[in-house]
Amino acid sequence: MKRSLKTPAALAILLTAIAGPAFAGNYAEGDPRPAPLTASTSRAAVMADTQRWLQTAPDQGYPQGNPRAVVSVSSNSRAVVQADTMIWMRSGLAAAQLGEAGADISRPVYQRAAADYAQRRAGPGFAALVEDIKHKGVPATTGFVRKLN
């Protein structure tokens, strides 16, 4: 049995003719490189427009437009923070905030504790407690801690 070489050759020529355009490709289409764009505005015009915008631009949250402004930190001393923590605990606000219900300000228990805390914080006893902590340090106990109902 002799095989004819004409059939495979014809098939190869036919497939090449069909696949030829696909292999050639159109490099202008689907080229991943971006095409360069020509600017329609001069560099000087862009700079002038930017300068005009900067004169009226908002300061973007920085004081006086200074992007490197120093963040101000609370000036509470260690004694003030410790005294505030103690009255927070003594008023029952700590238990109200850290309890199972969380800081639900609509609860009467939380409202009573918050009122007690505000009264203690504004009263003369707070300044005396701060001075006491400054001179003696933190007492071993935080004093009476109110238990919530």
Q: Please tell me the overall pLDDT.
A: 77
**Could you give the distance between the termini?**
106 Å
Which spans of ≥5 residues are poorly predicted at pLDDT below 50?
Answer: none
Order of helices and strands: HHHHHH
Largest beta-sheet details:
none
Percent strand: under 5%
**Gyration radius, in Å:** 39 Å
Given the structure, what is the number of helices? 6
Topology, element by element:
Layout: H1 6-24, H2 43-56, H3 78-90, H4 93-98, H5 108-122, H6 124-136
Can you give a write-up of this model?
By secondary structure, the chain is mainly α. The protein contains 6 helices and no strands. It has a domain at 78-136. The protein has helices at 6-24, 43-56, 78-90, 93-98, 108-122, 124-136. It starts with 5 loop residues before the first helix and ends in a 13-residue tail after the last helix. The radius of gyration is 39 Å and the shape is elongated. Helix content is 54%, strand content 0%.
Concise synopsis of the structure shown:
The protein has helices at residues 6-24, 43-56, 78-90, 93-98, 108-122, 124-136.
Descriptive tags:
single chain, 149 residues, mainly alpha
